[in-house]
């Protein structure tokens, strides 16, 4: 567990699925308004979190004052998701989650980010991620141009 004095990072539990689903949907709608509207209801997203995300990925949640404020999901060495509640952005919680992911990825971490997601791109670049390649959107469901970013620890370079 890491702690900034207020926020703890812990492994996600099945009981967290509903809150993770709410954060996932809220964060995407606020930070990526160019995405198509979410067609799945809360129950469907919760089921996806419980039955797919938590089973396929090592997932951590950030907890402040007994409330989950964000989550990160790592599949192998690929960061599949890092989302925060919109009202807690820019408070260091994303950095705490990313640091936890990096601690569990001694060989480095890759991720995909939409080219239009300039806030996320700036966040990852600030944390030492570099662009590996670009895509026209043929590899994601949204068909939007994206980038592959990679962070490699100094000792692994």
Give me the secondary-structure topology.
Elements: E1 7-11, H1 17-31, H2 42-56, E2 58-64, E3 67-75, E4 78-84, H3 93-103, E5 109-114, H4 118-126, E6 130-135, E7 146-151
Parallel strand pairs: 4-5
Antiparallel strand pairs: 1-2, 2-3, 3-4, 5-7, 6-7
Explain the overall architecture.
- It is a single chain.
- This protein is an alpha+beta fold and 157 residues long.
- It has a single domain (7-156), classed as Aminopeptidase, CATH 3.40.630.
- Helices cover 32% and strands 29% of the residues.
- The protein has 4 helices and 7 strands, in the order βααβββαβαββ.
- The chain has helices at 17-31, 42-56, 93-103, 118-126, and strands at 7-11, 58-64, 67-75, 78-84, 109-114, 130-135, 146-151.
- A hairpin with a 2-residue loop joins strand 2 (58-64) and strand 3.
- It is globular and about 35 Å long.
- One of its GO terms (molecular function) is acyltransferase activity.
- This is GNAT family N-acetyltransferase.
Low-confidence stretches: none
Class derived from helix and strand content: alpha+beta
Structurally, how many domains make up the residues?
1
Helix content: 25-40%
CATH class: Alpha Beta
**How would you name the CATH homologous superfamily?**
Gcn5-related N-acetyltransferase (GNAT)
Report the major sheet: 7 strands, mixed
Rg, Å, rounded? 15 Å
> Distance between the terminal alpha carbons, to the nearest Å?
27 Å
Output the number of helix runs: 4
Q: Into which percentage range does the β-strand content fall?
A: 25-35%
E-strand count? 7
Averaged pLDDT? 86
What sequence of helices (H) and strands (E) makes up the elements? EHHEEEHEHEE
Describe the global form. Answer: globular
* Strand order in space, largest sheet: 1-2-3-4-5-7-6
**Looking at CATH, which topology would you report?**
Aminopeptidase
Please tell me the CATH architecture by its name: 3-Layer(aba) Sandwich
